[in-house]
Amino acid sequence: MTTSAAAGTTRAMRADARRNYERLLAEARTVFAEEGTDASLEEIARRSGLGIGTLYRHFPNRQAMVNAVFREAVDALLDQARELSRSPRPHEALIEWLGALIAHAGAYRGLPGALMTASLDGSSALSPCSVPLYEAGERLLERARAAGAVREDVPVGDLMRLTSAIAFAAEQTPNDPALAGRLLTLALRGLGRV
């Protein structure tokens, strides 16, 4: 579901249903950040002060909730990719966007690992989010290739998995906040023309 479709669905709700939906999403974001995307849906309902039945009326399964939580962030990344696709410096635009992907993946515990497998598993809760990100990444990568800044043999899938791996490494080393940036810089040295 696109953001505009979701917004239309939210607008069509009664005011109390809309408030419940937003409360559930807010708590889901918090719980997913603390415990990961496999966190208990019952805990999300409890923290929101609503029953599990209300949660399931809005989100029929975990995948629906995960998609709703990440939709806003994915839309922001897609908007950023569109903006960067107009940059006169395509290589720097690609690097900036990859850094934003790493920051997004690091926002929720367990998300980096889930993102690494989402593209390989069409039934993954994150699959609907990863497809448009791959497409946006491909457009930025193609511009960097055309500018001669990136080797022709670098596939977007490898870049996307690389960002997830970097976010995963940073997640495992929370006492080193600069690690993700250093790893990205190190990895990007291998992207240039050899």
Q: Can you describe what's shown?
A:
The protein is mainly α and 194 residues long. It has ten helices and no strands. Helix 6 (90-105) packs antiparallel against helix 10 (179-188). Residues 18-77 form the HTH tetR-type domain.
Q: Key terms for this structure?
A:
194 residues; 72% helix; elongated; mainly alpha; disordered N terminus
Largest sheet, in brief, is: none
Strand content: under 5%
> What gross morphology would you assign?
elongated
Number of strands: 0
Mean pLDDT across all residues, rounded?
86
Low-pLDDT segments: 1-8
Number of helices: 10
One letter per element, helices H and strands E, the order comes to HHHHHHHHHH
Distance separating the two termini: 41 Å
Estimated structural class: mainly alpha
Radius of gyration: 18 Å
Helix percent reads over 70%
Task: Lay out the secondary structure.
Layout: H1 3-12, H2 15-35, H3 41-48, H4 52-58, H5 62-84, H6 90-105, H7 111-118, H8 127-146, H9 156-172, H10 179-188
Helix pairs in contact: 2-3, 2-5, 5-6, 5-8, 6-8, 6-9, 6-10, 7-9, 8-9, 9-10
What does this entry show, briefly?
This protein is mainly α. The protein is built from ten helices and no strands.
